[in-house]
Design a protein that fits this description.
single chain, 16 strands, 14 helices, six-stranded antiparallel β-sheet, about 40% helix, eight-stranded parallel β-sheet, globular, alpha/beta
Length: about 375
């Protein structure tokens, strides 16, 4: 990048705290500075402004996070947490976890039950479907009892599809997908392969009937318990994989699903990196999705990630790749987004000891959270001095 990054940050009106990140990146640098020269928000006024922001940055944390991990989240300036507890835990565990994190000064924004996402019995109308839906209702009631008001849902019949790991900047290991090579779907301990993952071709009509059966059963329970359900995009968002149509792979698909739900408690968990995997075949890009569904108060959570490629892709760092994250953040501010941002599909940096880590307090997470907060702070400051 030819321009001096530190000068660029100052010209753009970003807080001094953001300078410590050292690199704003190619996508942001391409955007002209908009803050008037000499005007910015700093010191206590800046901290107060960020504290009032409804664009909150959160971390996906282990339900049994250690004291060291809790300190790490707070050192990053994070105040909100998303949990994925062990699927065998009962409803009282939700309340216990909210208190555990609350006592440490961290708010549990959402809690997800991994075993009830991408459940093939629910998605494909297999034997035991209604029993699984009843478990999902119990999950919603447990959230309501604990006072946790958000959960993520995903509706893929044969999981998230990937290929062998690829490489992001400077050798960082990253998830990849190549439809022309070896690939497979996976969720939990189940692995799916083509040409037909479940032995036959499914139709769009029956897939929509299955979703309608599910969402009309659970949406009233979500409303009764003050829980919002954010639906993830299919990963990757393509019309069909291994004989199974994927409903959340276009703007029209999302719109139809929201129309079927007819509930203020059903909306989107938009993963911007996942959405970009669909290239130009989605109907709207991430900013367009934010604008349309954000104005309807249907956008509950946003996953921040970036990719190189589209049909065949490799996940990359948020400051590079196809997506202009500054544009995404501006779109969120424009619709007064009231929810959380989380880091998603992060390439793994090398640790100080020379190995790679998947620990919740790894440098990859810290870098991504810092960059995300930097962009959030920038758009909030620009709005304040406009």
């Amino acid at each position: 990048m030819k321009e001096n990054r530190r000068d660029f940050i100052r010209q753009a009106g970003v807080s001094v705290a953001a300078v410590s990140m050292g690199s704003i990146g190619v996508a942001v640098a391409a955007t002209p500075a908009v803050a008037p020269p000499g005007k910015n928000v700093s010191g206590d006024a800046l901290q107060e402004l960020m504290a009032k922001s409804t664009i909150r940055v959160a971390v996906q944390a282990p339900a049994e996070a250690t004291a060291q991990q809790l300190s790490f989240y707070k050192q990053m300036g994070v105040k909100h947490i998303i949990l994925w507890p062990d699927d065998t835990k009962g409803p009282d565990y939700y309340t216990d976890r909210k208190k555990y994190f609350g006592d440490a000064g961290l708010e549990v924004y959402g809690l997800n039950n991994n075993s009830l996402l991408n459940d093939e019995k629910i998605v494909l109308n297999m034997p035991g479907r209604d029993e699984r839906i009843e478990l999902y209702k119990q999950h919603l009631r447990a959230l309501g009892k604990a006072g946790i008001t958000y959960t993520t849902y995903a509706h893929m019949g044969n999981g998230v599809w990937s290929s062998a790991n690829g490489v992001a900047r400077s050798g960082a290991v990253a998830r990849s997908y190549n439809p022309g090579g070896e690939s497979w779907g996976q969720w939990g301990d189940k692995k799916y392969t083509g040409p037909l993952s479940h032995g036959r071709e499914y139709t769009q009509k029956e897939m929509w009937a299955n979703f309608e059966h599910f969402i009309k059963a659970v949406a009233p329970v979500a409303k009764e318990n003050n829980v919002r359900i954010g639906i993830l995009p299919d990963d990757p968002p393509v019309p069909k994989l291994a004989g199974v149509p994927r409903l959340f792979s276009s703007f029209d698909g999302y719109k139809h699903a929201i129309d079927l739900a007819k509930s203020p408690n059903v909306g989107l968990c938009l993963s911007v990196g996942t959405w970009a995997e669909g290239g130009n075949n989605l109907g709207k890009d991430a900013a367009g999705m934010i604008d349309y569904f954000g104005k309807q108060n249907k956008l509950f959570k946003v996953r921040v990630s970036n990719i190189d490629g589209s049909a065949a892709f490799t996940k990359t760092f948020v400051d590079s790749g196809n997506i202009d994250m500054y544009k995404v953040m501006k779109a969120l501010k424009k619709v007064n987004f009231d929810g959380v941002l989380i880091a998603d599909n992060i390439p793994q940096m090398i640790t100080q000891v020379g190995g790679r880590t998947n620990e919740a307090y790894d440098p990859s997470l810290a870098w991504t959270i810092g960059y995300t907060k930097c962009l959030r702070d920038r758009v909030e400051e620009e709005a304040a001095i406009a």
